[in-house]
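Q: Convert this sequence to structure tokens.
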Amino acid sequence: MTATVLHTSCCIVGGGPAGMMLGYLLARAGVPVVVLEKHADFLRDFRGDTVHPSTLNVLDELGLLDAFLQRPHHKLAKVDIQFGDQTYYAADFTRLPGRSRFIAFMPQWEFLNFLAQRAAALPAFRLMMSTAGQGLIIERDRVVGVKARGADGDLEIRADLVVAADGRTSDMRTASGLQVKDLGAPIDVLWFRIGRDPADFDQTLGRIDPGRFMVTIDRGDYWQCAYVIRKGQADAIKARSLEGFKRDVVAGAPRLADHIDDLTSWDDVKLLSVTVDRLEQWSRPGLLCIGDSAHAMSPVGGVGINMAIQDAVAAANILAAKFKTGGLDQALDGVRRRRLFPTRVTQAFQVFVHRQVLEPVLAASSLKAPLFVRALNRSAFLRGLPARFIGLGVRPEHVKSPIA
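A:
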């Protein structure tokens, strides 16, 4: 059978934060864009929840923030973390400049549905759900489109630019031949949910004990839980009894005790394999990688979704006019040059936390809070520094006005 052929200016593979935001921004600028999302909906548990001030500021610049905050979420203005039974104050977002002085915890499917609904009102935007990018169309050493499979069969989407935004295991990146630099990650995460009592307003984000680190994220009627483990230890943990694991979870997060029996089998516990890597080169003629496709982030700091949004804003700012004026291929590397420094700094911070905090904690039989954590606890000024680094990031991007 002959594949259906579509034509557009930009085909974005992947309907995550990077892909949806870039699609929205390009369509807002009048650039015809098609976004391919392989799933039928956005409902996945592994997706990040932490919408940081950098992203909230972008939404504000687009005039979308008030409507966005009508979606189910809760705000976190200060971050506390426990080392054993001692609580330390680690970051204070109320000290940030601007309107958005908090992290918004919102399930990512809410965020993506919001962007999809807003983008649908733009004539240049088209979202194709249940449509998976399967390969690149390359002619004369230039990417000229995407081979895809949709609900109605095979497709070819011909485009002036293909953007790979299909995540850390990007099929488009693999097909491109671009080389990945693996920075290593010594941890993985076991991911599960436990029921939450409405009266529980404890805002402590995580607890560190010798050999264990637990993070709990408030999702309204349940806690989304992350149990940090050493890389490759998931099978050994699952070889133990589920009851033993549940006791460890409650020891790390006593608030979960009343609902711990929500875990009925190991099927309720999913493995999130942590990767920290980045491309040395983000583009080739006709193709650009952004978000996790260009640089996979650790969960440390919850920055992944926000780095992806920043990539999308930078790409739109640099490339939108080029679809009309020409010189698109020549401009692609400008996105990497703009975003490489923030990527390197953020990943260096994550690797530092892996090596200086998480690895020692997971190997420890006793525990003492690191000196820098104790310093943060004593100084309101110092607590503003991690808030700025995590909340706004390095070199935050700002939305340009649409092309006339």
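Residues 333-363 form the longest helix (31 residues).
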